């Protein structure tokens, strides 16, 4: 499935985030759909995310399902509680079987880091982190400037001999928090942490599950992608976060 997106030049992680946002809005804002259409839509989008085999988005999907299940358990009658619990267990089992193909080799490679060849995504990410952490030790308090981060990653990869990064010619750290720290220093890192804290706090105090879910999805994605540094990430995040700060889909429009 991921090869299909690659053929259109679409990054599977960013596309999966869009599907996650759609699932969350259907969960609570899809009252205009009957229950059968609603659940079929959620199942279809969830299977799509799993088939795209984006590891982080699979983890986010599972965590969101567990969150919605836990919240719904408070108001469901006993029979529906049993049914929803069985459905969740079935989903977790199915997700584990589908994701096994991606996660099992990843853990094997992490355990055998000395045999890294840098020829797959897990080993590539490890090399990006290695270069980024080495550079972070030398970062001045106000950073190097966002425009210089990629060039500095390239220089550090050359210095410590990370050939796969040099062959691929992509020098992004693939971690938003690290990228902001390298570019803007401690001030930038504290700023982004405060941003997410404010969004989570607003979501929890207003009981806005959709703002919480979208913030959670983006927050997790920032550990494996420079999500907010790309137009495909920052634009939908700003649109949905700004809308949901002012409007909870569970509330009726006056």
Commentary on this structure:
- InterPro entries: O-antigen_ligase-rel_domated (IPR007016), WaaL-like (IPR051533).
- It is found in: Membrane.
- It comes from Flagellimonas chongwuensis.
- This protein is mostly helical and 254 residues long.
- It folds into two domains: 111 residues, no CATH class; 142 residues, no CATH class.
- Helices cover 74% and strands 0% of the residues.
- It contains eleven helices and no strands.
- Helix 2 runs antiparallel to helix 3, helix 4 runs antiparallel to helix 5 and helix 4 packs antiparallel against helix 10.
- The radius of gyration is 20 Å and the shape is globular.
Characterize this entry briefly.
With 254 residues, this protein is mainly alpha-helical. The protein folds into 2 domains: 111 residues, no CATH class; 142 residues, no CATH class.
Bulk shape: globular
What level of helicity do the residues show? Answer: over 70%
Report the count of strand segments: 0
Number of helices: 11
Counting helices, strands and paired strands, the structural category is mainly alpha
Low-confidence residue ranges: none
Biggest β-sheet strands, sense, barrel: none
What percentage of the residues does DSSP assign to strands (E)?
Answer: under 5%
**How many whole angstroms does the radius of gyration measure?**
20 Å
In total, the number of domains comes to 2
């Amino acid at each position: 499935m991921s090869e299909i997106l690659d053929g259109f030049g679409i990054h599977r992680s960013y596309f999966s985030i869009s599907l996650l946002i759609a699932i969350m809005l259907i969960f609570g804002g899809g009252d205009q759909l009957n229950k059968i259409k609603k659940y079929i839509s959620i199942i279809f989008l969830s299977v799509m995310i799993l088939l795209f085999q984006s590891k982080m988005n699979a983890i986010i999907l599972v965590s969101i399902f567990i969150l919605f299940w836990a919240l719904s358990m408070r108001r469901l009658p006993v029979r529906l509680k049993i049914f929803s619990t069985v459905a969740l267990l079935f989903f977790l089992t199915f997700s584990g079987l589908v994701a096994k193909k991606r996660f099992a080799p990843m853990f094997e490679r992490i355990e055998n880091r000395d045999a890294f060849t840098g020829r797959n995504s897990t080993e590539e990410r490890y090399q990006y982190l290695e270069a980024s952490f080495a550079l972070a030790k030398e970062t001045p308090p106000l950073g190097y400037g966002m425009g210089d981060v990629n060039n500095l990653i390239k220089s550090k990869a050359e210095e410590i001999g990370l050939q796969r990064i040099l062959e691929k010619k992509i020098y992004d750290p693939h971690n938003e928090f690290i990228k902001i720290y390298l570019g803007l220093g401690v001030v930038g890192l504290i700023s982004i942490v405060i941003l997410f804290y404010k969004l989570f706090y607003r979501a929890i105090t207003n009981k806005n599950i959709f703002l919480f879910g979208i913030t959670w999805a983006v927050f997790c994605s920032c550990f494996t992608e420079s999500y907010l540094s790309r137009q495909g990430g920052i634009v939908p995040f700003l649109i949905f976060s700004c809308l949901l700060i002012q409007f909870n889909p569970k509330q009726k429009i006056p």
